[in-house]
Amino acid sequence: MPDWLLAGGAGLIAGGALLLGSAVAWFVRVPPRVVAVVMAFGSGVLISALAFELVQEAVEEGGLAPTAGGFLLGSVVYVGLNVLLARRGARHRKRSGTQQPSQAEHSGSGGAIAVGALLDGVPESMVLGLSLLTGPGLSLPMFAAVFISNVPEGLSSTAGWKRAGRSPGYVFGIWGAIAAASGLAALAGYLLLDGAGPTTLAFVNALAAGAILAMITDTMIPEAFEEAALYSGLIATLGFLAAFSLHSLG
Hints:
The protein is mainly α. About 85% of the residues lie in helices and about 0% in strands. It is built from 8 helices and no strands. The chain has helices spanning about 5-25, 30-60, 65-90, 110-135, 140-165, 170-190, 200-230, 230-250. Helix 3 (about 65-90) runs antiparallel to helix 4 (about 110-135). The chain is globular and about 50 Å long.
């Protein structure tokens, strides 16, 4: 299979996990505490993946300076865009409770939530394509981490959207579009940076890592802490350990 096709396919499949989580939340009533537990686990998985699959490898590939610069810039850009979206009603887009506004409560929130979901999904999908350029093949630990973390993201968001009165067409339309965009982002990560030097690849990988860490802190951890405060640290640790084990074995 050509590498460009593998990159796009990996992004599409990993993005499709959002649809899987969404379908579970739409058709099955999942208790809020279960949502929080799964979100905590997914947070730990992603933190481990960005630490060892992205930041560590970026430092080894291109050095500390481009890695640190990219990491900081990714965080700043994500937070800046997230602040703008929060003002338009997308602040709680990954919450499963009653925090999310309906369209009637906050005009334009539907579009802001859609853009926010895209903002959350693009960085982690792009690095799947980049992994084909920085290693001998697709990073299976990174792919597994993105897939595993996308399930609770789709589950939690959809539970909240359903409570806010969003239609099934809106919910599954957004996640279907995000899954397709994830495939395109992974493909773009491969095609646009094919032939780039180690410093550039390190910078872009770290850029994505910074954005992912900011996303975890701003949107995933609050949901995990809400209903599983006493155990969220332990659950996140188990997620971290699971992803680290995949990294070590891979």
